[in-house]
Amino acid sequence: MAWPGAGTTESAGHDFLDHTSEVTLKLWAGSFPGLLSEAAVGLSEWLTRSTPRVTHGEPREISLTAKDRESLLVAWLNELVFFGEAESWLVAKVDIEATETRLVARAEGIRLDRPAVGVKAATFHGLSLRRTDRGWEAEVTLDV
Amino acid sequence: MTTPRSGIADTAKRVSDTELEIPVSAREDLRVPARIFADETLWAQIRGDRTVEQIGNVATLPGIHRAAFAMPDAHEGYGFPVGGVAAFRTSDGVISPGGVGYDINCGVRLLSTPLLARDLDANIETLVHELSRSIPAGAGRESRFHMNDDELDRVLAEGCRYLVERGWALPEDLEHTEATGRLEGADPAAVSKRARDRGRNQLGTMGSGNHFVEVQRVERVLHPEAAEVMGLTEGSVTVLIHTGSRGFGHQVCTDYVALMDRVMPGYGIQLPDRQLACAPFDSVEGQEYWAAMCCAANFAWCNRQLITHVARQVFARLLGNDVELRLVYDVCHNIAKLEEYDGETLCVHRKGATRAFGPSNPETPLAYRSVGQPVFIPGSMGTASYVLVGTDEALDRSFGSACHGAGRRMSRGQARRTKHGREVRQELSDRGIVVRCPSLKELAEEAPYAYKDVDRVVQVVERAGLAEIVARLVPLGVVKG
User: Fold this and answer.
1) What is this structure's pTM?
2) Which of B49, B261, B275 sits opposite A20 (nearest CB)?
3) Do A115 and B77 touch (CB under 8 A)?
4) Residues ≥6 apart with Cβ < 8 Å to B274
5) Is A123's CB within 8 Å of B140's CB?
6) Chain segment A28-41, per-residue pLDDT in tens
7) According to the model, what pLDDT value does residue A94 have?
8) Which of A83, B23, B111, B329 has the highest Cβ tally under 10 A?
9) How far is Cα B296 from Cα B187, in angstroms, rounded to an integer?
10) Which residues of B touch A123 (CB under 8 A)?
């Protein structure tokens, strides 16, 4: 339990769990779109190793489709890994609409002064995503 | 951390003092047995995480030949364990991007020098400093070698041959690079724009994590004949470069794991772990991944070659133009290769494992036909590294493969909580090792105690007949990625 996550809402949050060679991002939120938002915030935090600054003027709309919720979560994180590394852009705040196989995200970003290269990819390894009494929970392993 | 997990590890039978076997009967879905090279101490560590379950998962993949192997440095990864070797028949088997890993053709190369460590004493601080200024390391430092699309295509298709043309590689460097620094199956058309965008400014950069450039002293020669062929003498200075295909390879893997996850059901492939996503080798998707993976492998060889070029410039500038840095060899430890065994063409996946061909193998460079292909096993930052040579015997035992490093035994978080980066730097400095690192946090994550004991790992490799120890190298200075 390295960095307890701040959470985008009261019922949402994230945490980083130890793994011998990688790191596992644990997520919880009241809704599936909320979980995807939390994933973005968690990734930004890992890549900057602190809670990202919220800045305005770097908006971005992202649409993605995948074959199921698990793939959508992994694809979303990998989308953000790409933007972080290729465009030095990370999510600060995001509103997401999502179904089981599609998401539309409207994000406000932060522009870094150098590429964020700390994560190679989000993986399917040990991926879990489940409904709980309080909403949704997931664990996704990042290759770092 | 070495609490044994239950499961198929309990079915392991010791075959020799360096090898265990998980029988094919251990799990209903295994197609072949799993073999683990370890003594009792390493076995206790290996069975402490999910390594054994993961090598079992590999043994379920279609077309797997003989057995799935775990090297003595094996530890839990994603999909394949790190330190895993598996070969699939190209006729009815698969190719798996997760079985190669994100850092395609991560590897190690060793350069010999005519210098003696005792002559370098006064200059080591300056030398390490200049290397760290000249070789971009850590998060997001950009390349000095900018490539337009056509030039990048040539890197991807031609590998190090193209760099000879540009004056960034010597012709003799090619012969001393695995596969001469170029896999022929490369087709830049199989690579996404995203992979290009991620990798474009990263040629000649080290990246972060466990990558490093180390200036070393040959502490001990244990196989004088092989050491002489390699130009290594006790007390001489060497340079070890450890890095891979950077964001380019990461994106190739990401793209093809996603593609194979989508198309796999159509091929009737069911997996115990989605990260093992794969497709038949001879399918459209299998062939596209192969073509893209070969591009990433060529990118990685060019990356290590460009760092070599810069290291040569730094040594010449500081120590004189007559100081020649000769490439001893360059080996990959995350790759799939086509090789012939038992009359079959196999796609051999080495994930955190090094090819270790013996003297009689035609792919062993001519210069090393009397001793075997050089194998380099970097220790963790600040500990010893080893030079070995492959054996002919390894072909039968492990598809001609040996280990790739010490292997992690602690998570990054655990390593950080054990000591602060400042303490780690001080301890290295107290031992006379000059360290340059862009992040103290990452220095703590890569501290020597976070890894298995490299001395034990290579001893097991030698006792198991996979490779022979040639020399032990100790660090004088480290530039950490």
Assistant:
1) 0.94
2) B49
3) no
4) A70, A124, A125, A127, B261
5) no
6) 999 999 999 999 99
7) 94
8) B111
9) 10
10) 78-79, 98, 257, 275
Tokens of B229: 């062929």
What's the pLDDT score for residue A3? 35
Q: Are strands B107-116 and B236-243 parallel, antiparallel or unpaired?
A: antiparallel
Task: Return the residue in A113, A125, A129, A144 with the most chain B beta carbons within 10 A, the one to mutate for interface testing.
Answer: A125
Q: Are strands B107-116 and B68-75 parallel, antiparallel or unpaired?
A: unpaired
What CA–CA distance (Å, rounded) separates B86 from B346? 9
Q: Letter for the amino acid at B346?
A: L
Choice between A50 and B462, residue whose per-residue pLDDT is larger: B462
CB contact under 8 A, B139 and A82: no
Min Cα–Cα distance to chain A from B254, Å: 7
- List the strands of the sheet with B82-89, edge to edge: B13-16, B19-22, B34-37, B68-75, B82-89, B344-351, B334-341
- Residues of A in Cβ contact (< 8 Å) with B274: 70, 124-125, 127
For the four alpha carbons of B469, B471, B475 and B481, in that order, the dihedral sign comes to: negative
Is the pLDDT higher at B219 or at B434?
A: B219
Phi, psi of A45 (to 5 degrees): -65, -45
Distance from CA of B308 to the nearest CA of A (A): 22
Q: How far is CA A11 from the centre of its chain?
A: 16
Which residue type sits at B380?
S
Q: Which amino acid is at B30?
A: L
Q: What angle do CA A27, A33, A39 make, to 5 degrees?
A: 35
> Using CA atoms, how far apart are residues B216 and B387, in angstroms rounded to an integer?
12
Examine the pLDDT at B432 and tell me if it is beyond 70. Answer: yes
Rounded to 5 degrees, φ, ψ at B160 are: -65, -20
